[in-house]
Design brief:
single chain; 427 residues; alpha+beta; Pdz3 Domain; six-stranded antiparallel barrel; 15% helix; 31% strand
């Protein structure tokens, strides 16, 4: 066990001094170097002078004995005397020089140490870099907080139109409809100023909504062309995931025309989505997905997950989905101008339980676009415009990606091709 001075109980006891018999009364007692000092209170005894024997000349092991000439200090030769004088003078000079040097060093101030710092911006960010794009787009992105008696939530949005008196923000329908009832909507800008917003209109079928602000002359997002997007294009997602405003993530376009559905049985959104691996999390909904030129190509709306986290909300696994901006632009324009929007239809009811390849027509709506063609109940649609469809959901998504008035080609299971001019229905 290691002993320390703080453990006096563990220190070894000092052995009691042993009295050695003295056979010669002329030899003084010898004290050990490690023996304790004699206490002042101890009895004083008479010390007898010791008789010291002559010390023999030492002999070094493995070297011959050294011999000295028997000369006294007073009978040194002149050469020795000169050497001694020279040594003394040299020592004095060396000591004086050393003293002077030490004095100079002691009086010299300590040198200051400074690390060089660069002045100005030595690493400018290019306009087309992620940092440059984020700096340009962030001012148009807002955080949206919704609260009501039924609940609260947060999402993102971006300014798509602004006049001298008012501005309009595009976001997801599920961001503003989630609280339900009479909700209070607060929009927070990047400078942390806030404004109250009202709903202009919503479109549950596309999961889009437009808000109005009583604040004008705001910066407006540049809208790109989602039809020109290709797989591999760079993407940047901006929003407020988990309420963290102004969050920027980047990735690429992972896939196009992904059939995505969201909502419940009574309020389903059908999206032919842009898939990206840019991190999108709860709260990013409604925020912009931009390209390498800073143009909005999509509205972030949904993510695929493998499970829920401890908090009950799942996070990004690199599978995010955005509503193409060309689709969102048409819906937003209609909502601002009329307060409602339309979506394209072919005028049929589909059997969504059909397990075969393709979409099974359950019935044809009387007076609808399909009623003017050869399409009939029982037909199985396997392609639209030459693109295969696996089920009814994918067919609806492909049709919703079109505009009312577009002409589409439907290929049946037997190879028959039918042209249908898409009609419209109101949300």
């Amino acid at each position: 066990m290691t002993q320390t001075p703080e453990d006096p109980q563990n220190l070894p006891e000092t052995p009691a001094p042993v009295e050695s018999p003295v056979s010669d009364s002329n030899v003084a007692p010898v004290e050990s170097e490690n023996s304790p000092e004699t206490s002042p209170a101890a009895e004083v005894t008479e010390v007898v002078p010791a008789v010291i024997a002559p010390i023999p000349t030492p002999t070094y092991v493995y070297a011959p004995p050294m011999t000295f000439s028997e000369q006294s200090a007073g009978s040194a030769s002149p050469a020795v005397k000169k050497a001694i004088v020279a040594g003394v003078i040299s020592g004095l000079l060396a000591g004086m020089l050393g003293f002077m040097g030490a004095s100079m060093i002691g009086n010299t101030p300590a040198p200051s140490i400074s690390l060089p710092a660069s002045s100005g911006d030595t690493s400018p960010r290019a306009d087309d870099s992620i940092a440059g794009i984020a700096q340009a787009v962030l001012p148009v992105v807002v955080s949206i907080d919704v609260s009501s008696n039924q609940g609260s939530g947060t999402g993102s949005g971006f300014v798509i139109r602004s006049t001298a008196k008012e501005s309009f923000v595009l976001t997801n329908n599920h961001v503003v409809a989630g609280a339900g009832g009479e909700q209070d909507i607060t929009v927070t800008f990047q400078d942390q100023t806030q404004a109250t917003a009202t709903i202009v209109g919503t479109d549950a079928s596309y999961d889009l909504a437009v808000l109005r602000l009583d604040r004008g002359n705001l910066p407006v997002a540049a809208l790109g062309d989602s039809d020109a997007v290709v797989v591999g294009d760079a993407t940047i997602a901006i929003g407020s995931p988990l309420g963290l405003t102004g969050t920027v993530t980047s990735g690429i376009v992972s896939a196009l025309n992904r059939p995505v559905t969201a909502g419940d049985a009574t309020d389903v959104s059908f999206i032919s989505a842009i898939q990206t691996d840019a991190a999108i999390n709860p709260g990013n909904s409604g925020g912009p997905l931009v390209n390498s030129r800073g143009e909005v190509i999509g509205v972030n709306s949904a993510i695929a997950t493998t499970g829920s986290s401890v908090s009950g909300q799942s996070g990004s696994i690199g599978l995010g989905f955005a509503i193409p901006i060309n689709q969102a632009r048409r819906v937003a324009t209609e909502l601002i101008e009329t307060g409602s929007s339309s979506y394209p239809v072919i005028g049929v009811q589909l059997d969504m339980t059909y397990s075969g390849q393709g979409a099974l027509v359950q019935s044809v709506v009387e007076g609808g676009p399909a009623s003017e063609t050869e399409l009939a109940a029982g037909d199985v649609i396997t392609e639209i415009d030459g693109v295969k469809v696996s089920d009814g959901t994918e067919l609806v998504v492909r049709i919703r990606a079109k505009n009312p008035g577009d002409v589409v080609e439907l290929t049946l299971e037997d190879g028959t091709v039918i042209e249908v001019t898409l009609g419209s229905d109101q949300n």
